Request: fold
Amino acid sequence: MRVDIFTLFPDIVDAYLGVSLMGKARGEGLLDLRVHDLRSHAAGVHRMVDDAPYGGGAGMVLMPEPVFACVEAAQPQRPLLGLGPAGRTFDQRLARDLASGDGFSLLCGRYEGFDTRITDHLVDDEVSIGDYVLAGGEAAAFVVVEAVARLVPGVLGNAASPDEESFAEGLLEYPQYTRPPEFRGWAVPEILRSGDHGKVAEWRRAQALARTVARRPELIEVRGGLTESERALLERWGLGV
Ligand code: SAM
Reply:
């Protein structure tokens, strides 16, 4: 998978995505990550990339010339996604869509964001990581790249694990436990130590459903509500709603 990232801070992007799982994926050739400095095509000794907004107001806006020039020279993998709070909200579904392709590109903003001709005519779509405002798009790029790359076959050691995580089936994950079996009087549920794999799977499914109903009821609604068999499962485990 090829991922191009356009940023004013290439060093922090390279540093963050050069370690841990992403660093390993890059080292193994599973992730071809190319980081581009938006200043590389800026004109003048000061390599200016921003200017004051037309109409007045606080802050600076990223200019179209250096951004278009940098992107056009790199010929990045499409789709090119502009990162910004006004974009469509990034979620696991979009992560899966991106992971099923050959790659994608991310454009990180700074200051007050992009001249609108960049978002109108250069990027293919705009993506937000949530309803809050960051100082720059780099942290958002880390979120998107990590969420997508870990779905690429081979990136996670255990190939099955993304299928059992939160959002994989529109549900939150079941509770996880490890050793010791008892810690400060809090015991691991007996069923998980029973060795009965069928019952463990059933308990986990019931827990995932109950957790999602309690914490994220809108996810259950999106699935069309609980089915009769899911209600029966919850009843059987004393988690009825
Ligand atoms: N003036 C813009 C607005 O009100 O929508 C905010 C600009 S923000 C200070 C600077 C940059 O941070 C943006 O261009 C974008 O790349 C990034 N950014 C901020 N919040 C973000 C979010 N929720 N999702 C993705 N990127 C974000």
About this structure: The pocket of S-adenosylmethionine is lined by residues 83-86, 108-110, 112-114, 128-130, 132-137, 140 (CB under 6 Å). The chain is about 35% helix and 15% strand. The first helix runs from residue 10 to 16.
